[in-house]
């Protein structure tokens, strides 16, 4: 393939706890799932490596506790990695391990290169600020100081995510869960980020709203060509959105490939179980 | 029982600690320096921050003026003056240009200050980011990382809600192009007086245990969006009903007899000065 990946992740590791003699060595350690019984250290992500190509949607599936969200949080700098490298292929950041950059640089990446949609809108939105304000926050953080411009951009984005404009000055806490999620998506898109993270965006929404949000994501990808990483434990969501899929189990990648291939012809025992347990 | 208090109430150790905090504040314009705010004979939130600065910088030859929202005779100003006078014996004044140290609550005098003067402002809420972020750990980090989007967002929200920035007082400012600072609840009218001020400006928050400063000739810029420029209170067509001044900060009052709205200088000593000048001029013309 000639195309350069926009995001390369190499050997991402994240552990909670200091580790002990028994679990220090990667090859010899015996863990209960991802948990060391001796010292209580949780190995949430173990040696995760993958590439994300421009314009593609990469799906990440796995059961609860498999390290999906931790990986996302590490990539978005909400959580510090224990070790590992990530490279973003933009002119300013090329060949820099972004995990090692200063806090300011990381913030600038979050504001200019990344967009994030959390599972719980409380994490991504300021519930007591207006919806326009929430979107403007990201624009302000990226250095915009023009109210008219920011208001126009926010309006356009809210329109795109089907929030009625007469409610744009309302606070998201007055909104339904689906609307909050859509405001969050609008906020994540405000700076035209080349990379968008979606963490269980449809979990907890009812089916018709889920369909709306998924549709929106699809449209965004098609129109804007944004690369996305979609984390979900819902295989239907992954099947609909993702071009390629990674299966995580106990913090490790156990299978990866084209979504159809992974879902139709699963190789790993766990993936087989996962696919066939689909109702 | 009359006990002899130490000069300027504090022991020398306390003064030294506060002076050190002040030195650091002057060295890093706009940065909030934590200090061990002491128990004072007045309650926290009543000017203890300003009072502690005043007491630790005042010397025997100083002349002190204390104002409370423009007034020299308010109870609070008078009791602070009394306390400082009783423990130091320094001369008190109401005339702005005669004072070497001016402690003020929420106003900067109308008369321009000079290099020989220090103005001490009392601050209730030194953290401009507090309304967006409750945790001190986080706000300190935000200051360190020059992350002021929260303050801008606050102003943006006000514009969305009211069509303009609605900070009646305490409009945040950029000091020396680096730190965003709460200028204490002075009216926006006074913000411009902070910019390139000839006098040293010290700000003290007793309850919040912070001291910060704007050294003389420092750039101070009020936060404003490109399309919503910073504006101050306007008193167009209004004048002080006592002295007739027009380009000053006016209080709006209601005449108890006629029920009419009248305006009056907020800075009482400035008003009296104008009246005295007028009287003098009248005397000179009528006896000439």
Description:
The complex is a heterodimer of chains A (279) and B (288). Chain A contains 10 helices and 9 strands. By secondary structure, chain A is of the alpha/beta class. Chain A has one domain: P-loop containing nucleotide triphosphate hydrolases (Rossmann fold), CATH 3.40.50. The longest helix of chain A has 18 residues, at 207-224. With 288 residues, chain B is α/β, with parallel strands linked by helices. Helices cover 31% and strands 17% of the residues of chain B. In chain B, α1 crosses α2. The mean pLDDT of chain B is 94. Classes of the chains: A alpha/beta (279), B alpha/beta (288). The interface between A and B is medium-sized, with 20 and 17 residues.
Secondary structure tally: strands of chain A: 9
CA-atom Rg of chain A in angstroms: 19 Å
The general outline of chain B is globular
The CATH topology of the largest domain in chain B is: Rossmann fold
Distance between the termini of chain A: 36 Å
Helical stretch tally of chain B: 7
In the CATH hierarchy, what is the class of the largest domain in chain B?
Answer: Alpha Beta
Query: Strand content of the residues of chain A, in percent?
Result: 15-25%
Number of domains of chain B: 2
The CATH homologous superfamily of chain A is termed P-loop containing nucleotide triphosphate hydrolases
CATH hierarchy, class of chain A = Alpha Beta
Q: What best-fitting shape of chain A do the alpha-carbon axes yield?
A: globular
Q: Strand count, sense and closure of the main sheet of chain B?
A: 7 strands, mixed
